[in-house]
Amino acid sequence: MKKIIFLTAFLMSAVCVIAQSNKQVEDGLFKINLLAPGVSYEVGVADKTTLNFEAFLGFALNGGSDRETSFGLYPGLEADLRQYINFNRRLQKGKNISGNTGNYVAFLNQLQFGTPIIGDLEYASDYFYNAAIVYGMQRTYEKGFYWGLAFGPSVFADEFYVDAGILIDIRLGWVIGGRKK
């Protein structure tokens, strides 16, 4: 039994070393986002696959001519599993893949809380959750500026209802260190 465990551990570590040597994605990217203020960390887990974790602040404003205006800043969390799909084509054309510059498909999860940390606009629900299958693009430039766009079908849910729709996620910000040249 000990030999089987040792052999399995040895083979798994050899596979991990081989997989790491061919990895085209960055080992880790720390990003600061401006549109939905927050921070994210994208970690490479396989050749063209990453996990992206994000903490952000969402903003809501409600008002009108016949009612009082109120606002709120709401904390949120996001996690998505990305599979980059055009690295080889970009490299063949002499284009950059540094900073995970490329197109991807992803399973995206977002959770936003309904109680504001700043402001007086309280939602009836304590949380909002959505899950989506998205097609996305991310471009990172030499100075670290990046932008991202992802869109696709989504399921939105809170304590009271579940609904389907289209998710559109736009990001602007900077990558702080970690980029391959």
Key structural traits:
181 residues, mainly beta, eight-stranded antiparallel β-barrel, elongated, disordered N terminus
Strand residue percentage: over 45%
Q: What does the radius of gyration come to?
A: 20 Å
Largest sheet: 8 strands, antiparallel, barrel
- Measured as a percent range, the helix fraction is 10-25%
Would you summarize the structure shown here?
It contains 2 helices and 9 strands, in the order H-E-E-E-E-H-E-E-E-E-E. The protein is mostly beta strands and 181 residues long.
Structure overview:
- The protein is mainly β and 181 residues long.
- The chain has 2 helices and 9 strands.
- It has an 8-stranded antiparallel β-barrel with strand order 1-2-3-4-5-7-8-9.
- The longest helix is centred in the N-terminal third of the chain and has 20 residues.
What's the helix and strand layout?
Layout lengths: L1 H20 L6 E6 L4 E9 L2 E16 L2 E18 L2 H6 L9 E12 L4 E2 L7 E14 L4 E13 L4 E15 L5
Antiparallel strand pairs: 1-2, 1-9, 2-3, 3-4, 4-5, 4-6, 5-7, 7-8, 8-9
